[in-house]
Design brief:
Elements (H helix, E strand, L loop, with lengths): L7 H5 L12 H14 L3 E8 L5 E7 L2 H5 L1 H12 L6 H10 L2 E7 L7 H15 L3 H9 E6 L4 H14 L31 H13 L4 E8 L6 E3 L3 E4 L5 H20 L5 E3 L4 E2 L5 H4 L6 E8 L7 E3 L28 E3 L1 H21 L1 H21 L4 E4 L6 H13 L5 E3 L3 E3 L2 E3 L4 E4 L5 H7 L28 H4 L5 E3 L7 E3 L15 E4 L6 H10 L4 E4 L3 E3 L2 E3 L4 E4 L2 H11 L4 E2 L2 H4 L4 E3 L5 E4 L7 H12 L5 E3 L1 H5 L3 H4 L2 E4 L4 H5 L7 H10 L12 H13 L3 E5 L3 H7 L4 E3 L14 E7 L12 E6 L5 E3 L8 E7 L5 E3 L5 H4 L3 E8 L2 E6 L13 H5 L4
Parallel strand pairs: 3-4, 3-5, 5-10, 6-8, 7-9, 27-28, 27-29, 29-30, 30-38
Antiparallel strand pairs: 1-2, 2-4, 6-10, 11-12, 13-17, 13-18, 14-17, 14-19, 15-16, 20-24, 20-25, 21-24, 21-26, 22-23, 31-34, 32-33, 32-35, 32-36, 35-37, 37-38
Length: 844
């Protein structure tokens, strides 16, 4: 007698995708474990807790025989995807024995609910079906499903929806971030891995399984195509193996065919989403030799049906989809009408199944080309003009450099370390230098994360109206973000090198002393200082650079008074050596006392501000205490009693003050789209009264820090004689769009303590600040400015003449307080380690 397999509708009490119903994550988790109990073709792995403690699942769907051999099959795939040293016959045998490995994830963006609602239904149909095609999938494919990439947000959105069900606000947007730290930005974390959910996915995709294809299921706006599927449109990022782009067309064509076969209309491909996007999971995977795709379904009002008139349907202003009409990549337009969650669930399920179907029917081809991509990328690396990237042992911030190397290992990139000195040309590199050879399968991702990248200006990189055809950051050059000195070796060299399995932090042992000195060059010095302040230890900073015990200690370096055993433990955690210093030497130094400042971060509604969330995460990572400041805290008139420092993350002025007055930008767009659908208590803004309170907060001794676009707030609130030259410019006049630019820094200024004199910083169409003051210009202290020429490092820069030699950081003293304006996002997504100290220096 056959086992009864529980249908999703019986378990949840409704059909998944039903109007006005959202299955919640805790119940979905229970369902997957129930399926695991009922059938032998599913394995559920709880990879650990999400950010807020909910299970993060990886669900394996494949035949019982495959599950019994899962580790053996994983090892086979490891060899196929990195076949160096294997003979052709060995590879052929592995291909015969191996299975296609496909990973698909759902609802990374929590308001895009269709994927997670679809996942249990897809799993049920696969494990219960006796259809020949479904059985072939189980036999030939190891399908690793991540049913929810953002469990915390899924529960937030589902609970919010239920709260307003049956009211005028039914189906309205969540007013705060749907991930504790990142909100919608969680898919921008695939290369920096700040979030635990990203770390779980990296473990699956980049290291343990290295699948042959990865697909992430999303939603998009409601008024265009009903579904986007692979392939992407132009432009494409360089350095992926060409087979990748062919595979995306192959997989996408099969999905489109099956969708049309099943009567799904409004399907678009080769448009709207370019192949050069941010290095999120579905884009970065292409450079890992994994065909990385996404689906984008048109959105309903969460689980509430949405009516769309045919006249509201439009194209996307790109060359692949200029109008909502029949064309080669959009042959069957949807005519308009009611759009439902069930439509989304159905089309995503067909697309997900179709990817599995093509991988099952062509298993040997998929595996053979996994081998081909790997071996060809290795071959290209052997002949690349940049033979290797060298990460010298002598770095400005050595502990941060180790974090960079650790992130490369997390990507599955092969890294070596020099056992002794070696030469490249006439230059000597010391023992301990890290070496990343290009001759390895992951050459493509190495070129982007470790190398220097330029985004070309050509036919493919602009839309019909001439605006930039780009999707988020143009240069995800992680080494540049982190301030790591990297040298491209343009010739073959020899030496003694060992493969790095993990980054080893040097075991720190301190000499007995009463006082110790810590360099201000290291971000992690602030971890130690914060711990010292937490236990009431005396800490001070150097006002001037000194040389001591044969080492240079920059201005801002810390003198701490601590028992050896306490300090040694902290130093070991971060890999920093504190040097004992004599009291009589300290007495001759020019020092300033370090005190804890009470830090506040402004938080608004209107969907939340991801820059605010990332800033919170960064402060927690470096053990700064903070409190969230809302509108009422500012309007209370007691801000100086609550905090010493107020951080306003990057934001449009109107978002902070009054969205109803927005005449441009995202604030105007959100007001038009959602202004009347948001409950009144979640329409935030401090108003003109709040602006006055912040001005008074500073005058009475507070510190205001404005990050990136919120510099406009400081300029307007304090009537600074500074203009933002970027205001009103289109991206044909000024654009950086997530590039790295070169700056000069004054490390003697207290905001810039510990910084190098020059480096590159991240810039995303940031303000261009010009000091217009003619009478008292000295009150505007510039501690960082863009270089005078040739300032682009990686990415693309339009309007270089506007930004050269202009301030990137300004300090202003105002009565008892001060204002610090960072005209570039120094803490961007908790990724730009090279400029973290600029913010940290303002917080003590």
């Amino acid at each position: 007698m056959e086992n009864i397999i529980t249908k999703p509708a019986d378990f949840f009490g409704f059909e998944l995708g039903a109007d006005r119903k959202i299955a919640k994550w805790d119940k979905i988790v229970d369902y997957f474990y129930k399926l695991e109990d009922e059938v032998d073709t599913i394995k559920v792995e709880n990879m650990g807790p999400s950010t807020e403690g909910h299970p993060f699942l990886a669900v394996y769907l494949t035949s019982k025989n495959n599950l019994d051999r899962l580790e053996e099959l994983r090892q086979i795939n490891q060899k196929i995807t990195d076949p160096r040293g294997l003979s052709e016959q060995e590879v052929q045998n592995l291909i015969k024995e191996g299975k296609s490995v496909i990973v698909q994830s759902m609802s990374l963006h929590a308001s895009e609910i269709g994927g997670t609602q679809m996942a249990p239904q897809l799993a049920y149909e696969l494990v219960s079906s006796k259809d020949e095609d479904d059985l072939r999938i189980l036999d030939n494919v190891i399908f690793i499903m991540v049913p929810c990439f953002n469990p915390d947000g899924q529960l937030m959105v589902a609970n919010w929806y239920d709260q307003w069900l049956g009211t005028e606000y039914e189906g309205c947007s969540l007013p705060w971030l749907y991930h504790k730290y990142s909100g919608h930005d969680n898919n921008r974390d695939a290369f920096a891995l700040n979030l635990v959910e990203s770390q779980y996915m990296a473990e699956i995709v980049f290291r343990d399984w290295k699948p042959h294809a990865y697909q992430d299921h999303h939603h998009m706006g409601s008024y265009g195509a009903r579904l986007f599927i692979a392939p992407y449109s132009n432009p494409i990022r360089p350095y992926a193996d060409p087979l990748i782009w062919r595979e995306l067309s192959w997989y996408g064509s099969h999905m489109a065919y099956k969708l049309e076969e099943n009567g799904v209309t409004g399907v678009l491909n080769d448009a709207q989403f370019p192949g050069w996007g941010h290095f999120g999971f579905h884009w970065i995977t292409n450079h890992h030799n994994i065909a990385g795709m996404l689906t984008e379904s048109a959105s309903a009002n969460l689980a509430t049906p949405k009516y769309i008139d045919s006249t509201q349907l439009v194209g996307s202003n790109d060359k692949g989809f200029p109008a909502y009409q029949e064309q080669n990549n959009f042959p069957h337009p949807w005519p308009g009408g009611w759009w439902k969650l069930s439509d989304i669930v159905n089309q995503q399920k067909i697309a997900a199944w179709a990817l599995l179907d093509v991988a099952a029917k062509n298993k040997d081809t998929v595996l053979k080309n996994a081998y081909n991509k790997s071996i060809r990328q290795t071959y290209r690396g052997e002949r690349d003009p940049e033979y290797a990237y060298l990460i010298p042992a002598d770095q400005h911030d050595a502990p941060t450099t180790l974090k960079f190397v650790d992130l490369l290992l997390d990507q599955g990139i092969e890294v070596h370390k020099a056992k002794s000195k070696f030469h490249v040309g006439h230059k000597i590199f010391e023992e301990g230098t890290y070496v990343v050879y290009l001759a390895q399968p992951k050459r493509g991702v190495i070129k982007h994360l470790v190398g220097q990248i330029n985004f070309e200006d050509n036919f493919y990189t602009e839309r019909i109206d001439g605006s930039l055809m780009a999707y988020d950051s143009l240069a995800d050059t992680l080494g540049e973000y982190m301030g790591v000195d990297i040298v491209a070796a343009n010739e073959i060299f020899e030496g003694s090198f060992s493969l790095v399995d993990e980054v080893e932090i040097e075991r720190v042992q301190l000499e007995e002393s009463k006082y110790y000195i810590l360099s201000s060059q290291y971000n992690d010095s602030f971890v130690i200082v914060n711990n010292m302040l937490n236990t009431n230890k005396a800490v001070s900073r150097l006002k001037r650079e000194i040389f001591y015990a044969g080492e240079k200690y920059p201005a801002g370096s810390f003198i701490v008074k601590s028992p050896k055993i306490e300090l040694e433990e902290l130093c070991q955690d971060v890999g920093i050596k504190a040097i004992p210093i004599k009291e009589d030497v300290i007495n001759e130094m020019e020092l300033e006392e370090v005190n804890r400042l009470e830090i506040g971060i402004y938080q608004r509604y209107w969907g939340g501000n991801a820059d605010e969330g990332w800033t919170r995460l960064l402060l927690e990572q470096f053990e700064f205490d903070y409190q969230t400041i809302m509108d009422d805290d500012i309007l209370s008139g007691t801000l100086n009693d609550l905090i010493d420092v107020l951080i306003i993350p990057s934001d449009q002025y109107e978002f902070i003050v009054d969205v109803t007055k927005a005449k441009e930008g995202r604030a105007k767009m959100l007001l038009q789209w959602f202004g009347n659908t948001i409950p009144g208590q979640y329409k935030s803004g401090i108003g003109e009264e709040g602006v006055k309170e912040i001005v008074e907060f500073v005058k009475k001794g507070g510190r205001l820090i404005t990050l990136d676009k919120s510099c406009d707030f400081a300029i307007k609130a304090f009537n600074f004689n500074i203009t933002n030259k970027a205001k009103g410019l289109n991206d044909r006049e000024y654009s950086t769009h997530g590039s790295t630019l070169k700056v000069d820094i004054d490390p003697t200024h207290k905001v810039a303590y510990g910084m190098p004199k020059s480096m590159c910083v991240y810039n995303y169409d940031s303000p261009i600040l010009k000091i217009e003051e003619r009478f008292r210009a000295e009150k505007y202290q510039v501690f960082m400015r863009y270089q005078k020429e040739d300032i682009l490092q990686s990415g693309r820069l339009v309007g270089e003449d506007l930004i050269t030699d202009q301030p990137a950081g300004i300090y202003v003293k105002l009565e008892k307080g001060d204002v610090v304006m960072f005209a570039t996002p120094v803490q961007f997504r908790a990724q730009t380690h090279g400029t973290f100290k600029l913010l940290f220096n303002c917080l003590i």
